[in-house]
Amino acid sequence: MTEISNRIDAVWGDPAAWEAAGWQWERLPEIRRMVNRHVTGDEAIDPLGWFFRRVARERPLPLGRALVLACGSGGLELRLIGEGMVREIVAVDLSPRSLEVARATARQSGVTGIEYRCCDMNALDVAGPFDLVIGSSALHHCENLEGIFDAIRRILVPGGWFFLNDYVGPNRLQYDAAQVMQVNRLLQLLPDHLVVNEAGFSRRGFRRAPVAEVVAFDPSEAPRSADILRVMRQSLAVETVRPYGGNLLYLTLSNLAQNFDVEHSGDAVALDYLKLLIEASDHWRVTRPGQDHFAVAVARQPIS
């Protein structure tokens, strides 16, 4: 393993350590419903389910063969196979420890048809053909976007699908001053018990980490995230892009989302504040169009 892959393995190889200080925003059902509303128009239908409904209008499911990029601990593949969306999957990741977890989870679940491989997205070496390529929280970790989209175009069958659900915000997490100020305003408004993470630290006083600090923690973190949609359009025929914000919520709720898990805690105060945070996020999106930090996209390999 290279020095970079060793660092990535240290950061992402242990799923239990990912949220040791607290949950991230997408763990909350209220947030997932908000995302669904922005992407699919129905709070009960998530982006992946919505995508496969679109595919099923054109051809019967399951699709034959899919590639999952940066698969992590493997939950997505289990759903794809288990819900009859895909028959066969190749899943790649640069973290050997993550792949060990994914393989073990698949074995314990009795799910077959998944092949896990250690692979760098910056030099994707996977033989096609594939009916589908999925990048879920994946491509923002890739620097060689031109290379990976060329590879995706090459390995997709004519008319094959590409599904993206990812962070497309500023490179290396360099948020602008207005965003940092607004996140701090929201954190300041929250009661004390909602801003303390699992490690016992208050999240008030959010700051933008310098680039060197971001790279030192994870050299794969958002090197060209802001370019993903542009480069995708250069290689594939884009059918739709559905932004869903995140500019405020994913920073405000980082390592704090467990405090808003109202479906289990019954904390009515937390629910009220969470609804206010979502309203603030929606208002931010309306007043700053085109600046969403997260998006779902569907693209195709053109049929010549």
From TrEMBL:
<feature type="domain" description="Methyltransferase type 11">
    <location>
        <begin position="69"/>
        <end position="164"/>
    </location>
</feature>
<keyword id="KW-0808">Transferase</keyword>
<keyword id="KW-0830">Ubiquinone</keyword>
<dbReference type="GO" id="GO:0008757">
    <property type="term" value="F:S-adenosylmethionine-dependent methyltransferase activity"/>
</dbReference>
<dbReference type="Pfam" id="PF08241">
    <property type="entry name" value="Methyltransf_11"/>
</dbReference>
<dbReference type="GO" id="GO:0032259">
    <property type="term" value="P:methylation"/>
</dbReference>
<dbReference type="InterPro" id="IPR013216">
    <property type="entry name" value="Methyltransf_11"/>
</dbReference>
<dbReference type="InterPro" id="IPR029063">
    <property type="entry name" value="SAM-dependent_MTases_sf"/>
</dbReference>
<protein>
    <submittedName>
        <fullName>Methylase involved in ubiquinone/menaquinone biosynthesis-like</fullName>
    </submittedName>
</protein>
<keyword id="KW-0949">S-adenosyl-L-methionine</keyword>
<keyword id="KW-0489">Methyltransferase</keyword>
